[in-house]
Amino acid sequence: MNEKSGYITRIALIVALGGFLMGFDASVISGVVKFIEPEFDLTKLELGWSVASLTLTATLAMMVSGPLSDKYGRRTVLKFAAILYAVSALGSAIAPSFLTLVIARMIGGLGVGASLILAPMYIAEIAPPAMRGRMVSFNQLNIVIGISVAFFTNYLILSWGQSDAGWAEALKLDEYNWRWMLGLELLPAVLYYLGLFFVPKSPRWLVMKGQTDQALTVMQQFTDQEDAKKQITEAADSIELDKNSEEAGLTEFFKPMYRTMLLIGVVVAILQQITGINSVFFYAPMIFEQSGIGTDASFIQAILVGITNLVFTVLAILYIDKLGRKPLLVVGLAGITVCMSLLAYGFGSATYKLDQTSLSTMPKELVMSDISTIVGKEFDDDVSFKNAIRTALGDEMAGTHESDLITASIDMNPTLILVGILGFVASFAISIGPVMWVLFSELFPIRIKGAAISFVGFINSAISYLVQQFFPWELDTFGNSVTFLIYGAFAAVGLIFIISYVPETKGKSLEELEKVLIRK
After folding, report:
1. CA–CA separation, 27 vs 33, rounded Å?
2. pLDDT of 268-288, one tens digit each?
3. Highest mean pLDDT pick, 112-121, 238-247, 447-456, 479-488
4. Are the CB atoms for 284 and 151 separated by under 8 Å?
């Protein structure tokens, strides 16, 4: 690696730390939901709201972060995002009520929305075409590292809290487990804020502001003098062609000249979330508990999800500039379709039956309750079994002991579920997870890039919000099998679209892609 490439890599890694915070902030809630549901006496929709509230404000932030970065600069807005992450971490950790917790999470969502849009945008604007795919993918890599760290720290806090260690008791890790899970984010948020002071302004943003000489000076830090002049000249020429046009706005995306890139951007944005990835990341322990393995094992298997996500994201980074964007998308979406079908089959074939032996291992309050009315009865699906539990015990007690009762009664192959989940995560991580953000950074011309990425990012985040908000309700209403079957169907439809309409963008400059995608 030469000096220029090394510098690009260092700057990209600093900027992509926003992805780490996003991944941690979003996935740490997976270990929290089990504890806040009984503590705050939440309904399934309220539980979904505790998860999805962050994504709601992230969605709103995506609408404004692009235009704000066009006005004030990518780096400046990212600094404010780091501050929001820190405030959210501290507020979530000390939240005295459910309302306070949600407000703190929503503040963090503003940081998520800004960093999710601006980090890949900035990296794409400094990286040469030959490195752009890998560099932009650093953001997705950091997202999955953040997800993995969140799963791991959740498990460690749960384990340490149950230990007899004096320091764990002094920190009250058992009593305040979910608060420690959320509060840990404060440290990387502070590091991100400090790191951004070492990041130069985007050279293409400087060109937009008429500061061409400064843009050239910055670009020469990333590439040789001749290539720097070429890139700055191309960027300036592209902006000059549109200098008499009105400032880009959302309505401009609907002009015929942008129709192709808009269609691709919107469909890919929807597809990345509608296949259910954040259901897995944000509710992993809950899903694994549904297979009957128990709470501790579900947290351990959630760590496997994070590790799988990390490994296959690294593979995507290694091959995205060699194989191209489209081949990875095709292979990944085919894998998602197969794995979701496997999960639907696995959960669909499960049966549930409580017997006297399993009942003897239950807590005393269950044995002495009316649960005996369903002992010996066999249920063919999870929905009817859960409904029977609620009828026998009432909603509150049923919610408290649901995991124990499922573990005691279920007859299925939990390994099949683990394979399906890990296969799904692997397929996502090597394809549409990182590739979507690379495509977004490449699809749109400089003049509308900020607003355009905000628009498709808004759609992506809105779908993510809906998936997170309603996933607990879907499991409760339709059952595990039908829920995963729906996700698989969406992946199959998306696969057909990718094959039919998405072009290959590998190795082309941003200005070359404009000529291919824009019909003037």
Report:
1. 11
2. 999 999 998 888 877 777 777
3. 479-488
4. yes
- Cα 425 to Cα 406: distance, rounded to the nearest angstrom: 25
Report the length, in residues, of the chain.
Answer: 520
> Which amino acid appears at position 95 of this protein?
A
| Cα–Cα dist 372/203, whole Å | 70
Instruction: Report the predicted TM-score, pTM, of the whole model to 2 decimal places.
Output: 0.71
Q: How is residue 28 written in tokens?
A: 């740490």
- H/E element holding 352? strand 351-353
**Both structure tokens of 209:** 């502001």
Query: Domain 3-199+242-281+432-472 belongs to what topology?
Result: Growth Hormone; Chain: A; (1.20.1250)
184: which residues sit within 8 A by CB, 6+ positions away?
24, 28, 89, 153
b (16+ CB within 10 A) / e for 41-58: ebebeebbbbbbbbbbbb
The answer to whether residues 245 and 520 touch, using CB atoms and an 8 Å cutoff, is: no
With beta carbons less than 8 A apart as the criterion, state whether 288 and 280 touch: no
Q: Give yes or no for a contact between 324 and 504, defined as CB atoms under 8 angstroms apart.
A: yes
Task: Say which DSSP state 245 is in.
Answer: S
Element (H, E) at 87: helix 74-93
Please state at what angle helix 17-27 crosses helix 98-126, rounded to 10 degrees: 150
Element (H, E) at 100: helix 98-126
Calpha distance 50→500 (Å, rounded): 38
Q: Do residues 33 and 281 touch, judged by C-beta distance below 8 A?
A: no
> Residue 235's closest CA among 200, 264, 199, 202?
202
- d(C-alpha 477, C-alpha 482), whole Å: 10
The four Cα atoms 404, 409, 415, 417 give a dihedral, to 10 degrees, of: -80
Q: Residue ranges of the domains in the chain?
A: 3-199+242-281+432-472, 351-411
C-alpha to C-alpha distance for 330 and 494, rounded to whole angstroms? 9
Q: What does the buried/exposed string (b/e) look like for 436-460 if buried means 16 or more CB atoms within 10 Å of the residue's CB?
A: bbbbbbbbbbbbbbbbbbbbbbbbb
Reported as half-sphere exposure (CB side, CA atoms, 13 A), residue 17 has a value of 23
Q: At what angle do helices 44-72 and 277-290 cross, to 10 degrees?
A: 160
Q: What are phi and psi of 460, to 5 degrees?
A: -60, -45
State the Cα–Cα distance between residues 55 and 177, nearest whole angstrom.
23
Mean pLDDT, range 81-105, rounded to an integer: 94
List, for residues 139-179, the tens digit of each pLDDT value.
778 887 888 898 889 888 988 888 888 888 888 888 889 99
